[in-house]
Design a protein that fits this description.
It is a single chain. Helices cover about 35% and strands about 25% of the residues. With about 400 residues, it is of the alpha/beta class. It has a domain of about 120 residues: ATPase, nucleotide binding domain (Nucleotidyltransferase, domain 5), CATH 3.30.420. Strand 2 and strand 3 form a beta hairpin. The radius of gyration is 20 Å and the shape is globular. It starts with a helix and ends in a 7-residue tail after the last helix. About 0% of the residues have low confidence.
């Protein structure tokens, strides 16, 4: 960035931080990057701080650098403190924290790309797809498979677990001390949730994992104010409210819940295709199709592939960006068609800035593609708390 451009950007940040209006901070923990985004009353993203989401190789296994993430988040909140009235956590799926009776992690938070759970797959007995809408996935992408492997390999540590907190709710608990569960993360190919009954799955009940789940709260529920020590460290007002939080692709979905039928492409490390109002009754679990759960409990046919990661690898090998984006766009269109998406297509995330990707999706589907400005995840998450600014 040129010096004058950098100064212009810095002045914008300074102006945003000095503006007396109340704002919302979203803690956005993605698989590749973590961000804290300041969102204004009109939904505009005013400024952000970004940090690499590092994975430590061990011991005892590959896990997220949780305390480094906490230090980053608290530092970013400190910079934005004068503006913040509420905080909303939003994170990637296939991730949970096991907390002991003293409030410490019973075990490090497992990186879902670790292949450990594959080693105990032969003895893992997930519920049928018809019950959970959760397909069998490799490595730790099924949270139930993670828990099964951890119980097999680390039974003593697992026995100390007093709570099972989905990843957004661990962040909420860390900030305000109130434990909660929430359906969008519980229903994200975990094998632990039954969409039809809105209750823990037969597997979760049989293994006793349901007893570790805190009370269910809506994503937009206000859990309470920040802990005194968080206020002291960050300079945030002691009255700053913390919301339950939400799974990241479901945050992108929020703006379109009334726009049925429509298709949504939420892009980032993963490209996630969702079909609101789809009449498709049968999904193919062997093709990474699943039933997502919207904030209102509605089952949403979903399909996905790791398009952002694949794009980064192809670019690092010298690939042509337009060619790559055209090919990923064609795959995204196929995913939408496979889950029965109809109506306009809304495109969220980094790929919305790619003309080649947008053109490929539109051409392959024959439908309008509406590319959103900015990233839908922080804006969607912040929308959960907008009522607090009135």
């Amino acid at each position: 960035m040129r010096a004058n451009e950098h100064r212009t950007a810095q002045l914008h940040v300074e102006k945003a931080l000095k503006d007396p209006r109340d704002c919302i901070a979203t803690i956005d923990i993605g698989k590749t990057n973590a961000k804290v985004v300041l969102v204004g009353p009109n939904g505009a993203e005013l400024t952000e701080r970004r940090h690499k989401n590092l994975v430590l190789s061990g011991p005892p296994y590959p896990h997220f650098a949780t305390e480094a993430l906490v230090a980053f988040v608290l530092g970013a909140l400190s910079e934005m403190a004068p503006r913040i009235r509420a905080i909303v956590p939003v994170t990637h799926g296939a991730c949970a924290a096991l907390v002991d009776g003293q409030g410490e992690l019973a075990l490090p938070v497992l990186d879902y790309e670790h292949d450990g759970p594959d080693h105990t797959r032969a003895t893992y007995r997930p519920p049928p797809f018809s019950e959970t809408g959760s397909p069998p996935l490799p490595a730790g992408l099924n949270l139930g498979a993670q828990l099964h492997w951890l119980e097999d390999r680390y039974p003593k540590a697992m026995s100390r677990a007093a709570r099972l907190l989905m990843w957004p709710q661990w962040w909420a608990w860390r900030l305000c001390g109130i434990a909660a569960a929430e359906v969008t993360s519980l229903g994200c190919h975990t094998d632990l949730w039954c969409p039809e009954s809105s209750a823990a799955s037969s597997l979760a009940r049989m293994r006793g994992w349901d007893q570790l789940l805190p009370p269910l709260r809506p994503a937009d529920g206000v859990l309470g104010p920040i802990l005194p020590e968080i206020a002291r460290v960050t300079g945030l007002s002691a009255s700053t409210q913390v919301l339950t939080g939400i799974h990241d692709s479901n945050a992108s979905l929020l703006a379109y819940l009334k726009n049925t039928p429509c298709g949504i492409l939420s892009t980032g490390t993963w490209i996630i295709a969702m079909a609101l109002g789809s009449k498709r009754k049968m999904l193919d679990p062997t093709q990474d199709m699943l039933v997502n759960i919207a904030m209102d409990g509605r089952p949403v046919p979903t399909a996905r592939f790791m398009g952002g990661r694949e794009r980064d690898v192809a670019l690092a090998r010298g690939g042509n960006v337009d060619h790559i984006d055209t090919e990923l766009g064609m795959r995204a269109a196929q995913r939408l068609q496979a889950i029965g998406a109809d109506g306009p297509i809304y495109l969220e995330g980094p790929f919305a800035a790619s003309a080649a990707f947008v053109a490929a999706v539109s051409q392959a589907t024959g439908r309008d593609v509406i590319a959103a400005k900015g990233t839908g995840t922080p804006r969607g998450a912040a929308s959960l708390a907008q009522r607090l600014l009135v």
